């Protein structure tokens, strides 16, 4: 296996690839040789990601709309002839104590982080099975392993995604599909962590708790996703990877 181009000939969907971490994941998969469908609602951001990649196309989609799922999968197959890799990365977040959580925030976050990932995966599975080496990588959060204050709705939606990761691994392992999750801690260049970084004194309160003494980067996430998407991870299935510099060790 050529470790640089180990995804040559593969086609991937990356949701939330108009955003910080998703764009870096899309680039890493493309650098490893995959054709990539970049998914998000913001067309300008999506086109900007796609223009720097050798084989990529943007599909504008609000993934809380059930009709978008088949369209994302069908467009990928129309453009690239196949689908091998699905990265469920799109997500929404809210901050605040659980006792103040609103139904509106609950429905918005569950609709994207859990329900959209469920039904997009369901739509993608026939093509991933047909691939013979289908790969699903779910971007979860360290908050499912070590919970933290002020993110009850978000963390529990990601915990549901972790559970789906294991269920899909169990139900489709024999079809050649591998399903794993990456659970990052605070990602320094991940836009979703901006409120947390503004709220916490990272240097004083967070870094001493992380054995690696640094926050994660989007590149750290992309490196693990690229590995999980490739042939080197063929015997990893149903695994939740804490990408936390040893925080939960
Ligand atoms: N940043 C961190 O510290 C951190 C830590 C642990 C885990 N994570 C996880 O990493 C992933 C990426 O986070 P990030 O920091 O890169 O955040 P981000 O930049 O806000 O990315 C979120 C992405 O989701 C997309 N999205 C939001 N609502 C959508 C909808 N209804 N339909 C389709 N796409 C939608 C956004 O694109 P549009 O606005 O274009 O739709 C955007 O591309 C998330 O799963 C997050 O939970 C992040």
From TrEMBL:
Entries under InterPro entries matching the protein: NAD(P)-bd_dom_sf, Sc_DH/Rdtase_CS, SDR_fam
UniProt entry keywords in alphabetical sequence: Oxidoreductase
Family matches, as PROSITE patterns: ADH_SHORT (PS00061)
Gene Ontology molecular-function annotations: oxidoreductase activity
NCBIfam families for the chain: PRK07231.1
Record family assignment: Belongs to the short-chain dehydrogenases/reductases (SDR) family.
Full protein name: Meso-butanediol dehydrogenase/(S,S)-butanediol dehydrogenase/diacetyl reductase
UniProt source species: Micromonospora kangleipakensis
Organismal lineage: Bacteria, Bacillati, Actinomycetota, Actinomycetes, Micromonosporales
């Amino acid at each position: 296996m050529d470790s640089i181009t180990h995804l040559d000939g593969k086609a991937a969907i990356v949701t939330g690839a108009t955003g910080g971490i998703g764009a870096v994941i899309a680039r890493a998969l493309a650098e490893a040789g995959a054709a990539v469908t970049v998914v998000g609602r913001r067309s300008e951001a999506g086109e900007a990601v796609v223009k720097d990649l050798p084989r990529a196309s943007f599909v504008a989609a609000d993934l809380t709309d059930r009709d978008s799922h088949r369209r994302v999968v069908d467009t990928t197959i129309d453009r690239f002839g196949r689908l091998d890799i699905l990265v469920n990365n799109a997500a929404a977040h809210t901050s605040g104590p659980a006792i103040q959580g609103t139904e509106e925030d609950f429905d918005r976050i569950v609709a994207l982080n859990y329900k959209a990932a469920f039904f997009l995966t369901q739509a993608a599975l026939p093509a991933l099975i047909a691939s013979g080496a289908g790969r699903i990588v779910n971007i979860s959060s360290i908050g499912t392993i070590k919970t933290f204050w002020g993110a009850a709705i978000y963390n529990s939606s990601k915990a549901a995604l972790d559970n789906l990761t294991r269920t899909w691994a169990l139900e489709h392992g024999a079809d050649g599909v591998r399903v794993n999750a990456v659970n990052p801690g605070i990602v320094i260049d991940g836009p979703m962590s901006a409120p947390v970084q503004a709220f916490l004194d990272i240097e004083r309160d967070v870094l001493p708790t992380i054995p690696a003494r640094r926050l994660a980067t989007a590149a750290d996430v992309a490196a693990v996703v690229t590995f999980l998407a490739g042939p080197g991870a063929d015997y990893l299935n149903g695994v939740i990877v804490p990408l936390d510099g040893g925080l939960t060790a």
